[in-house]
Design a protein that fits this description.
Blueprint: E1 2-5, E2 12-15, E3 18-21, E4 24-27, H1 32-37, E5 46-52, E6 58-64, E7 72-78, E8 80-87, E9 98-104, E10 110-113, E11 117-123, E12 128-134, E13 143-145, H2 166-169
Antiparallel strand pairs: 1-2, 2-10, 3-4, 5-12, 6-11, 6-13, 7-10, 7-12, 8-9, 8-11
Length: 182
């Protein structure tokens, strides 16, 4: 496993070692000891798996506020997505900085999104599956969304044709939300 810096503190791209032969391939997607060697000591407690049937399905920007904030380890296991993370940690030198990367079943990259970030993705094709680990259980009381097209972030989603949930359509702008990571 290789840990790649993104220019944003604590936000990393992880590239697994892939072993292939005529039968196919094998990769280790997560190994607690390997992560510790890389300086990532997170106790993941839940795995989530989503299917998005249509190209342009946008999920985000999502997060949980303290004390139920979540670290996420995100990977795309079928198809491809543009994955986006926004640093909302007010004391961070990269506060409000946006990072995006294509994650796909073929490139096998993962994105480690720490607590204090908003996260979202848009599908780049039909029938996309995304899996991610979290280190805190879902809490409806702490669940928040921020408008995906908030002009403060100026995110280039690489498309204008979105399939959105009501929750994401109605999400507030960051300035109008109660999201605050000191």
């Amino acid at each position: 496993m290789k840990k790649v810096e993104t220019g944003i503190k604590d936000l990393y791209v992880l590239e697994p070692r892939v072993f292939g032969d005529e039968r196919g391939w094998f990769q280790e997607a997560y190994n607690k000891d390997t992560f510790k060697i890389l300086g990532i000591d997170i106790d993941f407690i839940q795995d989530n798996h989503s299917l998005s049937a249509q190209k342009g399905t946008l999920r985000g920007l999502h997060l949980q506020i303290n004390p139920k904030a979540q670290t996420k380890l995100v990977r795309c296991t079928k198809g491809s997505i543009l994955d986006v993370a926004v640093d909302l940690r007010k004391s961070s030198p990269t506060y409000l900085k946006v990072f995006s990367i294509e994650l796909s079943a073929s490139n096998k990259k993962q994105l480690l999104v720490p607590k204090g970030f908003a996260h979202g993705f848009v599908t780049l094709e039909d029938d996309v599956e995304v899996q991610y680990k979290v280190d805190a259980y879902y809490s409806k009381e702490h669940d928040r969304s921020i408008k995906f097209n908030d002009p403060l972030f100026n995110i280039d989603w690489k498309t204008d044709n979105f399939v959105l949930s009501k929750k994401d359509e109605l999400a507030p702008l960051y300035k109008d939300s109660d999201v605050s990571f000191e």
